[in-house]
Amino acid sequence: QVQLEESGGDLVQPGGSLRLSCAASRPIFSVNAGRWYRQAPGKTREWVATINRGGYTNYADSVKGRFTISRDNAKTTVYLQMNSLKTEDTAIYYCNVVGDWGKGTLVTVSS
Length: 111
Fold this sequence. Notes:
Layout: E1 4-7, E2 11-12, E3 18-24, E4 34-39, E5 46-51, E6 57-59, E7 67-71, E8 77-82, E9 91-97, E10 100-101, E11 105-109
Parallel strand pairs: 2-11
Antiparallel strand pairs: 1-3, 3-8, 4-5, 4-9, 5-6, 7-8, 9-10, 9-11
C-alpha cells in the first residue's frame, strides 16, 4: 500500500492554468503507472490521464492538448499541468496508483 497526497487545486478563471501534484510515500511510479481521475459535482469519477512506468502518456479526449501528465526523476511525484482551463474542468482531482487513491484536490474554474 502507498499513501498519496494531492495538492495544487485552486480557483482559477477560464483560460487559466494550474499544476497539480501527487506525492507518494515511496517511489511507486518507478514500477507502476500513475493516473489522474476527476469527479465533477453530480457526476461519476472519470479517468483523465496516465503515465506508465516507461514514461508513456495517455489522455482522455476531453483534455488532450490541454493537460500534460509528468513525473519527477525520483519517481515519487506525478504532476498534472492543466492549461486553457474550462468551466467543465471543475472537479475534485484524484491521484491513483493500482488500488490506492489520494483524498483529492479541488479545482474550480469560474469567472
